[in-house]
Write a structure and sequence with these properties.
The chain is of the alpha/beta class. The protein has 2 domains: 21-180 and 306-348, D-Maltodextrin-Binding Protein, domain 2 (3-Layer(aba) Sandwich); 182-302 and 375-395, D-Maltodextrin-Binding Protein, domain 2 (3-Layer(aba) Sandwich), CATH 3.40.190.10. Helices cover 39% and strands 15% of the residues. It has 14 helices and 10 strands. It has helices at residues 30-52, 57-72, 93-101, 113-122, 134-142, 218-228, 240-250, 260-269, 279-288, 317-327, 330-340, 355-359, 367-370, 382-395; strands spanning 79-84, 104-109, 129-133, 177-189, 212-215, 254-258, 274-278, 292-295, 301-309, 373-374. Strand 1 (79-84), helix 3 (93-101) and strand 2 form a beta-alpha-beta unit. Helix 8 packs parallel to helix 9. The longest helix is centred in the first third of the chain and has 23 residues, at 30-52. The radius of gyration is 20 Å and the shape is globular.
Length: 399
């Protein structure tokens, strides 16, 4: 994603990260986005409170049995049900895994974290392995929706930078394994806007009315406006009036709030001229259209990491662990990172990453850029979340 339909998580220092999220091709109605997110947020909060109220020996026993099931499983099933964003693996990753292990991967793609979270909670899907944004995964840990991972089955986790592989503070267990990382900035067509600069204010420039667009993701949109005004990615309730006014001023200048993949493709074709964009999509677009430039704004922007997780209902835990370990084989992760123009926390993989990707100051930003990056953390608290969702619903009501 993250793309930033993110729930609550524990923030970490930006300089512990490298940086790209996955991006779905499935289109969706932005008017439903706020409703789906708010329902998912409410449901996961309720689950967290319910879990917190069950801190007894029986619960601890359940969690212990969950991990014991990993260690005690016999052999991996011949089929692995894997949920991921579209085009968020290397071209040959699945074929290589299937050839090496004999495990057939049944790949499903989904639209966003909230869709996946709601489906898991309702029992609508049965998944063995999922890629999610870390904030959503952390809330799922609290809600006891994920399996504790047997790290003995993941020797390649030793290649992951220690700052990106942190056990759960409450249990000491590992529930997530980092995959790839990214930022959100903007993409600009230098052929049409040669004096584009590096400020979010470009996307508020009246000279380019109808030639600009934003992502259809509420918290990313609010983060851009908030950072432009000198506020954090999660504006405080008292800052939201000003952020809201800025977004209403911007709205008539936009071609619209758009799906991330559609927006990338439109930028490649030359319309619009400037747009909010995820780094991976932005760099992919730059490869296809040399007039495009991806910018990490001078005011700062949002950043995140995506993770691999095993849901509690997994029926092929060993196969899931085999896949996690496989993708963190240095050569395999090097190929994935190179193809997706994405940073990886796997330090040993860097030997196998394309030199152009390693040199990219977007994939691996300079420290001066990293210092401007900010994670969504706890989303600024429940009241800030509620107010942003309410404003977003109003903003896109006649979209």
């Amino acid at each position: 994603m993250n793309q930033c339909n993110r729930l609550l998580w524990r923030p970490r220092e930006c300089n512990q990260r490298g940086f790209t999220p996955g991006y779905p091709r499935v289109l969706h109605d932005p008017r439903m986005m706020a409703l789906r997110f708010s329902l998912a947020l409410l449901s996961v909060i309720l689950l967290v409170f319910a879990a917190a109220g069950c801190e007894d020996a029986g619960d601890n026993g359940d969690m212990s049995r969950g991990k014991a099931g990993i260690a005690g499983s016999a052999a991996a099933s011949s089929r692995l049900v894997f949920y991921n964003w579209e085009e968020y693996l290397g071209k040959n990753t699945l074929a290589q895994f299937q050839e090496q292990t004999g495990i057939e991967v049944e790949l499903h793609t989904y639209q966003d974290d909230e869709e996946m979270l709601a489906a898991l909670q309702s029992g609508a899907i049965s998944a063995d392995l999922i890629i999610l944004s870390e904030p959503v995964a952390m809330e799922m840990v609290k809600a006891r929706l994920l399996m504790a991972l047997d790290m003995n089955a993941l020797p390649n986790a030793a290649h992951i930078a220690s700052g990106n592989l942190i056990p759960d503070a409450a249990t000491g267990e590992h529930y997530v394994i980092p995959y790839l990382m990214g930022t959100t900035g903007f993409l600009v067509n230098a052929k049409h806007i040669p004096d584009h600069g590096s400020s979010w204010r470009l996307l508020w420039d009246e000279r380019f009315k109808g030639r600009m667009a934003m992502l259809d993701t509420p918290f990313e949109v609010f983060a851009a406006a908030s950072k432009m005004l000198g506020y954090p990615v999660n504006p405080l309730p008292e800052q939201l009036d000003e952020v809201r006014r800025a977004l209403w001023q911007q709205k008539p200048l936009l071609a619209g709030y758009m799906d991330r993949i559609v927006l990338m493709e439109k930028m490649v074709s030359g319309e619009p001229w400037a747009a909010q964009m995820y780094s991976g999509d932005g760099l992919t677009a730059v490869e296809e259209n040399p007039d495009l430039i991806f910018v990490i704004p001078e005011e700062g922007c949002a950043a995140w990491v995506d993770v691999l997780v095993v849901p509690l209902q997994s029926t092929n835990v060993e196969g899931a662990l085999e896949f996690i370990n496989f993708v963190h084989t240095p050569e395999i992760m090097g190929d994935i990172s190179s193809e997706l123009w994405a940073a990886t926390p796997n330090l040993a993989a860097r030997e196998y990453i394309s030199p152009a990707v390693l040199r990219s100051s977007i994939v691996y930003p300079l420290q001066s850029a990293l210092d401007r990056c900010e994670y969504f953390g706890d989303m600024g608290g429940a009241e800030s979340v509620r107010l942003r969702l309410k404003c977003w619903a109003e903003l896109i009501a006649d979209q």
